Automatic annotation (TrEMBL):
Keywords: Cell inner membrane, Cell membrane, Cytochrome c-type biogenesis, Disulfide bond, Electron transport, Membrane, NAD, Oxidoreductase, Redox-active center, Signal, Transmembrane, Transmembrane helix, Transport. It is found in: Cell inner membrane. One of its GO terms (biological process) is cytochrome complex assembly. This is Thiol:disulfide interchange protein DsbD. Belongs to the thioredoxin family. DsbD subfamily. Disulfide bonds join 134-140, 193-315, 506-509. Its EC number is 1.8.1.8. It comes from Stutzerimonas stutzeri. It is a multi-pass membrane protein. It comes from the Bacteria. GO terms for cellular component: plasma membrane. It catalyses: [protein]-dithiol + NADP(+) = [protein]-disulfide + NADPH + H(+); [protein]-dithiol + NAD(+) = [protein]-disulfide + NADH + H(+). The chain crosses the membrane at residues 173-195, 216-242, 254-274, 295-328, 340-362, 374-392, 398-417, 429-449.
Length: 593
C-alpha cells in the first residue's frame, strides 16, 4: 500500500501539476513589504530593436519570468509626418479570463512584433512604443512609453546590443527546472518499457561483467548518446518552437482535444489496460541491430544507447511531448537542451549505478514498480485536464479535477471497509481528504467556480451591511494637489490616513477592494482612518511623478500615514494581500500610531 500513499501525496498537488509544463508562476495572494519585491518596469519588460528596414521594423519584448504584457495596450507612433506605421503584426497570445477585468490576451516570455513601415525617403525617425504589463504576483505597471531612434546607426547598434542582452536574460537557466527534469527522468526509468534496457546493458555492453572503472565507462558511453539525443531534440524545440509560436498555435480545440486524448490513452496504458509497443517489424530490426553491434567497446556502447532510446519511446513519448511543449514557449535553445539532457541522464543514472556496483545497488523488482507506473498515469491524466482547461468552461474543468481526485481516492481503497494493514488504513484515511476535495470541486462547479486551488467560490458577506459600509468613507482623488490637500487635512485633524493606489486596469486592485476592504472583519477597523483612494487610471506625467515620489512602480499599493502625516513605511503593502495578512498589517500600524 505504500504505492497508494505516493499517489495520494501526488494528488494533493494535482492542480499545480501544470507548473511542470507552464513557465510562469501562479498568481498568489500575499502581502509584500515594499517595491523591492518587484522589478522596475524596464527590467520586467525589456524592449529592443531587432531589425529596421524602409519597409519594416521588428521589435522584441522579453518579459521576465512571472510578468506579462497586454495585447490591447500596445501603441506605436512616430514623430515624422512622412513616415507611416502600419498595423502591428503580433502572434496569438494567451487568453486570461478574470472575474473583475473580463477577458484579455497577454504575452509571456519572448514576443516579436513586426511593424509595417512606409518610409519612401528612408528618413531617420523616432518610434514611440507604448506598452503595459503586470506581474503574476499582483502588481500592475502603468502604461510605459519608450522611444527608439530608427535610421540612426549608433542607436541601431545600441538597440542590437540591448537585444542580445535581452536574449541572454531570457536564456538564464533555472537550475531548479533542470533538477526537476532529472527527477522526472529518474522516475521514467522504473517503468516497464525502460527496465528492459538493463539486460541490454548487462548482456551486450558489459557482457555479464559488472563493477569497476571499465563498466562505469561503458555504461556512461551507453547513456550519454541517449541523453544527447534528447538534448538535441530540446535544443531544436527551443529554437524553432518559439519561432513557430507553438504554444499559441496549440490553443485550437482541434489541436488541444486530440492531444488531451493522446495523454489519456497513455495514462490508460500506464494503468495496465493495454500495452504499448513499437510495431513488430521495427522492433525486430532494432533488436537485430542491437545484437549485431559490437559489445564491450565504447563505440558499440554508444550505438546501443542510441538504439535503446528508440526501444523505450512508446512509454516516454507522452511525458516527452509535454516537456517539449513547455520548452517551446521559452525560445531558449540552451535551456531546452540542458533540461532534456537532464531528463536523459535521469533515465540513465540507475543504469550507470547498476553497471558500476551490480544489481545489489538497485532495488529489486516488485509491486513498487506498479506504484511508479500508476503515478505517471495520474500525472498524464492531470496534464490532459490541464490542456482541456483551455477549451472547456471553467466549471467543467473544475469538475474534471474533482473526478480525478475522486478516482484516485477510490483507487486508494477509501470506500473498502475490509481488514487492512496500518499502511492501508492510513491510505484510506487520507483518501477521505481527496473525496472531500472532489465533493468541494463538484459543488463549486455547480456554483460556477473554476479555480481548482479554491474550489468553493467565496462571496462577500453582507451581514450587517458590511459591503455597503465598505464603499462608504472613501475619498477618490486623481491629482497630486488633491492628495496633498487630503494629507494636510488629516494631519491638521490628527487623524491617521490610509492611501490606496488604484486603477481601472489593475485587476489586483479590484480583488483587494472586494475581498479585503469589504471583509466584515476589516470594515470596522478602518473607521478611524481617513480613507483616500488615488486613481492612477490615466497614468499621466503628474501621476507618474507621484509614483516616483513614493518610490512605487504601480498599483496595487496601500500606504499608512500616522497622525503627524508621516508614512509608516514598515507596514506599506505593495502587490496583492489577503484579508488575514491585511489584518496583521493593521495590528502593526496600530502599535505605531
Amino acid at each position: 500500500m505504500r504505492r497508494l500513499l505516493s499517489l495520494l501525496i501526488l494528488l494533493f498537488a494535482l492542480p499545480a501539476t501544470a507548473g511542470l509544463f507552464d513557465s510562469r508562476p501562479s498568481s498568489t495572494l500575499g502581502g509584500l513589504n515594499n517595491s523591492a519585491d518587484f522589478l522596475p518596469v524596464r527590467e520586467a519588460f525589456r524592449l529592443s530593436l531587432v531589425e529596421a528596414t524602409p519597409e519594416q521594423v521588428k521589435l522584441r519584448f522579453v518579459s521576465a519570468e512571472g510578468y506579462y504584457l497586454y495585447r490591447h495596450r500596445f501603441q506605436f507612433k512616430t514623430n515624422e509626418a512622412s513616415v507611416t506605421i502600419g498595423e502591428a503584426k503580433l502572434p496569438a497570445g494567451e487568453r486570461k479570463t478574470d472575474d473583475y477585468f473580463g477577458e484579455v490576451e497577454v504575452f509571456y516570455g519572448v514576443l516579436d512584433v513586426e511593424l509595417p513601415v512606409q518610409n519612401p525617403n528612408d528618413l531617420p525617425f523616432t518610434l514611440q512604443v507604448t506598452y503595459q504589463g503586470c506581474a503574476d504576483k499582483g502588481l500592475c505597471y502603468p502604461p510605459e512609453t519608450e522611444s527608439l531612434e530608427i535610421g540612426d546607426t549608433s542607436a541601431s547598434n545600441t538597440a542590437l546590443v540591448d537585444s542580445n542582452s535581452s536574449t541572454d536574460h531570457a536564456a538564464e537557466l533555472s537550475w531548479r527546472s533542470v533538477a526537476l527534469f532529472f527527477l522526472a527522468g529518474l522516475g521514467l526509468t522504473f517503468t516497464p518499457c525502460v527496465l528492459p534496457m538493463l539486460p541490454i546493458l548487462s548482456g551486450v555492453v558489459l557482457r555479464g561483467q559488472t563493477g569497476g572503472a571499465r563498466s562505469f565507462l561503458l555504461s556512461l558511453a551507453y547513456v550519454l548518446p541517449m541523453a544527447g539525443g534528447f538534448a538535441l531534440l530540446g535544443a531544436l524545440m527551443g529554437v524553432f518552437g518559439a519561432e513557430l509560436n507553438l504554444q499559441a498555435r496549440l490553443q485550437s480545440p482541434w489541436i488541444l482535444v486530440p492531444f488531451a486524448l493522446f495523454f489519456v490513452a497513455f495514462a490508460l496504458a500506464m494503468f495496465g489496460l493495454f500495452e504499448l509497443r513499437l510495431p513488430q517489424l521495427l522492433t525486430r530490426r532494432l533488436d537485430r541491430l542491437a545484437g549485431n553491434a559490437k559489445g564491450g567497446s565504447l563505440i558499440g556502447a554508444a550505438l546501443l544507447g542510441a538504439v535503446s532510446s528508440l526501444l523505450v519511446s512508446p512509454c516516454v513519448s507522452a511525458p516527452l511531448a509535454g516537456a517539449l511543449l513547455y520548452i517551446s514557449a521559452s525560445g531558449d535553445a540552451l535551456g531546452g537542451g540542458l533540461k532534456l539532457f537532464a531528463l536523459g541522464l535521469g533515465m540513465g543514472a540507475p543504469l550507470i549505478l547498476f553497471a558500476t556496483g551490480g544489481g545489489a545497488l538497485l532495488p529489486k523488482s516488485g509491486p513498487w514498480m506498479v506504484s511508479v507506473r500508476n503515478t505517471f498515469g495520474v500525472l498524464l491524466l492531470a496534464v490532459a485536464v490541464w490542456m482541456l482547461e483551455r477549451v472547456l468552461p471553467g466549471p467543467m474543468s473544475l469538475a474534471l479535477w474533482g473526478l480525478l481526485a475522486a478516482g484516485t481516492a477510490v483507487f486508494l481503497g477509501t470506500l473498502e471497509f475490509s481488514a487492512k494493514t496500518p499502511w492501508q488504513k492510513l491510505a484510506q484515511l487520507l483518501g477521505l481528504a481527496l473525496l472531500v476535495y472532489a465533493l468541494a470541486a463538484w459543488v463549486g462547479a455547480l456554483q460556477g467556480g473554476s479555480d481548482p486551488l479554491r474550489p468553493l467560490p467565496r462571496t462577500p458577506s453582507i451581514v450587517d451591511g458590511s459591503v455597503t459600509r465598505a464603499t462608504e468613507g472613501w475619498h477618490t482623488v486623481s491629482t497630486p494637489a488633491e492628495l496633498d490637500f487630503q494629507l494636510d487635512a488629516a494631519r491638521a485633524a490628527g487623524q491617521p490616513l490610509m492611501l490606496d493606489w488604484y486603477a481601472d486596469w489593475c485587476i489586483s486592485c479590484k480583488v483587494i477592494e472586494r475581498e479585503v476592504f469589504a471583509d466584515p472583519q476589516i470594515v470596522p477597523r478602518l473607521a478611524d482612518y481617513r480613507l483616500i483612494r488615488f486613481d492612477i487610471t490615466d497614468s499621466n506625467p503628474e501621476q507618474r511623478a507621484l509614483l516616483d515620489r513614493y518610490k512605487l512602480f504601480g498599483p496595487p499599493a496601500i500606504l499608512f500615514f500616522g497622525r503627524d502625516g508621516t508614512e509608516l513605511a514598515e507596514v506599506r503593502v505593495v502587490g496583492e494581500i489577503d484579508a488575514r495578512q491585511f489584518a496583521e498589517r493593521l495590528n502593526r500600524a496600530e502599535t505605531l500610531l
